[in-house]
Amino acid sequence: MCRWIAYAGRTIPLEHYVTEPSHSLVSQSIAALESTAATNGDGFGLGWYGDHPEPGRYREVQPAWSDDNLRYLCRHLHSHLFFAHVRAATGTPITRPNCHPFACGPWLFMHNGYIGDWSRLRRPVEALIPDELYSSRAGTTDSEAIFLGLLGCGLMGPGPRRDPVEATARALARLTDLAGPHPFRFTAALADGRDLYAFRYAANDKANSLYYRASEGGVVVASEPLDRDHGTWTTVAENSVLVARRDAPVEILSLAQFGLAAPSVDGSVRRLRA
């Protein structure tokens, strides 16, 4: 599966987490330690916020370890909120539109997960995307479809605006119903240029790994620790969301309070409300 990092806090160069640490994201693209796929070489991407409301992005189909541009970009780009992702494809083509992160308006999204029987579920999942957002569907991945469907649950499009955690929980409830008995894993990051949200959820399966480290300067969230000092990293519990709002302490919230039950012993999750 994919590996990713998200950062929010004081403005820093992207290299601080993407390329410099001993187990940086580039290192994880070659030798991930907590993934079903040790190599994540099916493309990579960066997303960052600067002087504009919409995020900047750089995405490529070659492996992160082989792109010289990545090292220079990460050294010279500075941001207060950025994403980085290395991809291990799970059935969809290795193309630039299929590389994370995905963007729509001010929103940025990346995903490490899986929804079983995608060939059957593609049409009903895409039906969750409002007509006015469907033109943003540039690729063929389940991740992008889930992102646009999530935005349609109250973050963009018609109707009242919802809290991002509530909107995501609403989308996850619908997706859990669609997946039925098939595994559905959703370890993802969502941001609007001001606040960062990182989710760890699964139905009928174990959720993919997620960790964070917070300091006075900011918070970094990662699929796995970026160095050997594992004692400074905290696991994000399953069925939870990390909320890092600007100028506020990091919070870990249970998704149960937003309508999703905690996983049962067999790993399944049952919807409490749509």
UniProtKB/TrEMBL annotation:
Keywords tagged on the record: Glutamine amidotransferase
InterPro entries given in the database record: EgtC-like, Gamma-glu_amide_hydrolase, GATase_2_dom, Ntn_hydrolases_N
Domain of life the protein comes from: Bacteria
Residues in the signal sequence: none
SUPFAM superfamilies per record: N-terminal nucleophile aminohydrolases (Ntn hydrolases)
Cited Pfam families: GATase_4
Domain annotation Glutamine amidotransferase type-2: ranges: 2-274
Protein name: Class II glutamine amidotransferase
Species this protein is from: Methylobacterium oryzae
